[in-house]
Amino acid sequence: MLDEQRPGRDLRGFVLPELGQLLETGDPWEPYRVLDPFGRPVEPAVLYLKELMARDSSPLTPRSYGMDLLRWFRFLWVLGIEWDRATREEARDFMLWMKGADKPVRVHWRHRGRAGVSP
Fold this sequence. Notes:
- The protein is of the alpha+beta class.
- It has a domain of 80 residues.
- It has a two-stranded antiparallel ribbon with strand order 1-2.
């Protein structure tokens, strides 16, 4: 039986801002760390990625999962929701947004800061 649900948010024009970052640490025990918009480690993500490192997986798996976690946390930060207060509705809205969202177009790092250069 489904819990009573809210109708959801209108996310058709929603653009996820680039808050926080996935930091490559160079540490083989913790190669990636998810940071919040203030540069602080996001502890639930740090713990999850450490658990992931203990498994037998590709070295690129923590980066991939870290990017996914960063995207989820960015979504929650914009909505003003703490990660441990997120509900099924937030997860549903996030997944619906992901299905309709365009892949972000970022300026190549060599061209950042240059005026008049298109990607």
